[in-house]
From TrEMBL:
PANTHER family documented for this protein: GNAT FAMILY ACETYLTRANSFERASE, N-ACETYLTRANSFERASE DOMAIN-CONTAINING PROTEIN
Organism: Candidatus Syntrophonatronum acetioxidans
Protein name: N-acetyltransferase
Alphabetized InterPro entries for the sequence: Acyl_CoA_acyltransferase, GNAT_dom, Trichothecene_AcTrans
Plastid found in the keyword field: no
N-acetyltransferase domain: residues covered: 8-215
Keywords: Transferase
């Protein structure tokens, strides 16, 4: 049974989040993604410097989400970051920001391209595509991660509860979308009312596309 940590506070990070916390948030997200089904399947973390490159890419993505005004939640114990959740608003960016975002992502990905398992990437590429349209104006849960030292304390569920509160509070959105290749995570999301709208097998990986509409 999880023991709830009452010292943890869930806060929304400012767009001007200090670099120290950006680095910490990126480390938590990168560590979680490295062990998650999709990332561990596509990238070879046994190769030298793979984790370093992946962490650099994740830091850049964290900065882009902050600068773009997406919802960026932190679980804090004092000033220490215990967990992170990032909600992509899927808003249209101004042209200059769109170009900058694309360039940052491309240059961040270049070092990782040599770490991709090409056979797995090709066999699974269609598993990440939805064949149906979701209701318009939905949010996407880009990341939800808890530091290993704080797992088992209900922090992930508190972050997810806050994610759903944000969705409910914004009447212009239809709901929340996410995908996962982790069976345990799928069950957790189903416990919060998410439904599998599609599931696709690609190579040796099964990807669950999930959606929860606003109540």
């Amino acid at each position: 049974m999880e023991k709830r940590n009452k010292e943890i506070k869930i806060v929304t990070a400012p767009q001007t989040l200090e670099e120290e916390k950006i680095v910490k948030c990126a480390e938590i997200v990168a560590d979680a993604f490295e062990r998650e089904g999709v990332t561990s399947y596509l990238f070879d973390f046994n190769k030298k410097n793979t984790r370093e490159y992946y962490l650099r890419q994740t830091r850049n993505l964290v900065r882009l989400h902050l600068e773009g005004g997406d919802f960026f939640l932190m679980a804090l114990k004092g000033e220490e970051v215990a967990g992170v959740a990032v909600i992509n608003k899927n808003e249209r960016l101004p042209f200059t920001k769109k170009i900058r975002s694309a360039l940052v992502q491309v240059f961040s990905l270049i070092p990782m391209l040599t770490r991709v398992n090409l056979k797995r990437a090709l066999s699974s590429r269609n598993a990440f595509r939805l064949s149906r349209e979701l209701p318009p104006d939905y949010y996407t849960l880009f990341a939800l991660a808890v530091h290993p030292h704080y797992q088992g304390q209900g922090i992930g569920k508190r972050l997810l509860s806050r994610v759903m509160e944000i969705t409910e509070d914004n009447s212009h959105v239809s709901g929340m979308y996410l995908f996962t290749a982790d069976e345990k995570n799928r069950l957790i999301y189903e416990g919060f009312g998410f439904e599998v709208v599609e599931e696709h097998q690609g190579g040796d990986i099964r990807v669950y596309h999930m959606f929860k509409g606003r109540n």
